[in-house]
Design a protein that fits this description.
The chain has 488 residues and is α/β, with parallel strands linked by helices. It contains 15 helices and 20 strands. The strands form 4 sheets. Strands 1, 2, 10, 11, 12, 13, 14 and 20 form an 8-stranded mixed sheet that branches. A 7-stranded mixed sheet has the order 8-7-16-17-18-15-19, with helices on both faces.
Length: 488
């Protein structure tokens, strides 16, 4: 999660196939002092073993293709999902965690993998901690009580094309302003202003004054409405996965183990144009020939790969300018019981001045222990982990009672420590979507773009990642069976 600028406002090695790629690689600039030691060839190489990349790989295997390999820079699978152990058999999500009833792609995947869901606890009042004083209010379907505000956003979003948002009516106007500029004219109450700021920060990964209003409308349309986007019951935060969301990737990895190689960062891709017979995917250790390449990465991560020949200017600019959001921290506390429930509270709280933006009940399905999850406000919270923990638990105590000050266990996940993620979400600033958006999805030569950012539905979410994996697999399979280009 980014800074809130204004709180108010064991992998099997593949069989190595001898090819002529060594000679081709001799002309490359050295990537390390030692030379690459292996040469392999596949029909498809997938870069990235998150939900998108593993879904694409699984689809290739289902289609009968066996000549493919997934390369992952990390020492784990799962991308922006991560299970964390909070002790006493309690697993929590350090990254993406929630799913909603309209997120059919990831729910179908979960059913195939025999991963169950359970509802997010949402009974009782929520707490507002404003000017260090806590008050409780009735919880609603959305965080924002102003129905007119929600209706206006949905009405405007209805005119936005998810395929080509830059061609929508008034697209230029909306992409020239920030979400904050539009909000300023809506006469929201102080409570709703706090809710909008907090929900924007949580959902989009930035405060309203850093996000294009066109991008907000596009995001809402992709989700099916502002209420669906921001709600628990009936919305994007309705359910959680038993055992944590990374379980989906871990189960796919077990199915695909011989096709996944970890600790392998792709440094360079050459001869990606369709005029070339194959392209070469270069790592520090090896040269891999591929007929097609799926890049299941956020656009900002693609910027860490050298493309030779260079990519077209708009696609290159997309990689270069895509927001890098890497300061998100999720902090989670375990207690013997979810004691706040006995007080008629749902575990949700919002603060106007930190050290966190929003807390939520993240207890296991059986309620065998109590867990509070806090999305840390990285502007207001101390940088030192121990001091941060102290301030967070003190704020929770102000909201839920002194029991909250003494958790039995505490765990954090700071996504700035994940260089191969670059944050969890990446909102676009004014001017980006209308000028560079058309370069986001179309394949280029032997390159096929994947990742949640490319999905037409539920962009930015785990469901969008799964959808993008399906799309990329179809694109790569289609390209493999297409007739070769005509010379000249």
């Amino acid at each position: 999660m980014p800074s809130r600028a204004n709180p108010k406002n064991s992998i099997s090695r593949r069989n190595v196939l001898a090819t002529g790629a060594v000679a081709a690689a001799a002309s490359l600039a050295p990537l390390k002092a030692h030379a690459q030691t292996a040469v392999a060839a596949y029909d498809v190489v997938i870069v990235g073993a998150g939900l998108a990349g593993l879904t694409a790989a699984r689809d290739l295997k289902k289609a009968g293709l066996n000549s493919f390999m997934v390369l992952e820079a990390r020492d784990r699978v799962g991308g922006r999902t991560l299970n964390q152990d909070l002790g006493q058999g309690t697993t929590v999500d350090g990254g993406g965690q929630w799913v909603g009833p309209t997120q059919h792609a990831i729910l179908e995947l979960a059913q195939e993998l025999d991963v169950e869901t359970f509802p997010t606890f949402n009974e009782g009042k929520l707490t507002l901690l404003m000017q260090r004083s806590a008050t409780t209010v009735e919880g609603g379907r959305t965080l924002v009580a102003d129905g007119t505000f929600i209706e206006k956003l949905d009405e405007l979003a209805a005119d936005i094309s998810v395929e080509t948002p830059w061609t929508s009516p008034r697209a230029a106007e909306y992409d020239s302003m920030t979400f904050r500029e539009w909000i300023a004219a809506q006469a929201l109450s102080e409570e709703d202003q706090l809710s909008v700021d907090a929900s924007t920060y949580l959902t989009f990964g930035a405060p309203p004054d850093a996000i294009s209003f066109l991008y907000v409308l596009y995001y809402i349309k992709s989700a099916g409405g502002y209420g669906v986007l921001e709600s628990i019951e009936g919305g994007a935060q309705q359910d959680r996965f038993v055992g944590g969301s990374q379980t989906l990737s871990l189960k796919m990895f077990e199915e695909l183990r011989d096709h996944v190689q970890l600790d392998t960062a792709v440094k360079r891709i050459i001869n990606w144009e369709t005029a070339s017979e194959v392209c070469q995917v270069i790592t520090d250790e090896e040269i891999i020939q591929a007929k097609q390449v799926v890049l299941a990465l956020a656009p900002s991560l693609c910027n860490q790969i050298v493309f030779d020949s260079p990519l077209p200017p708009k696609r290159a600019d997309l990689h270069r300018t895509w927001p890098v959001v890497g300061t998100g921290i999720k902090a989670q506390m375990r207690y013997s019981t979810p004691f706040w429930r006995d007080k008629g509270l749902n575990g949700q709280s919002f603060t106007d001045a930190g050290p966190y933006v929003w807390s939520v009940d993240n207890s296991p399905a059986d309620g065998s222990s109590g867990v509070l999850l806090c999305f840390v406000d990285t502007d207001a919270a101390p940088r030192d982990p121990e001091s941060r923990k102290l301030q967070i638990t003190q704020a929770l105590a102000a909201c839920f009672g002194e029991e909250a000050a003494k958790p039995l266990a505490y765990v954090e996940k700071d996504w700035s420590d994940e260089p191969w993620s670059k944050g969890c979400v990446s909102p676009l600033a004014p001017g980006q979507l209308s000028t560079l958006g058309e370069a986001l999805r179309p394949s280029l030569g032997r390159l096929h773009w994947s990742g949640t950012e490319t999905s037409l539905l539920w962009t930015g979410y785990m469901d969008g990642a799964v959808r993008s994996g399906h799309t990329a697999a179809l694109s790569a399979l289609g390209a493999l069976t297409a007739p070769p280009p005509v010379p000249g």
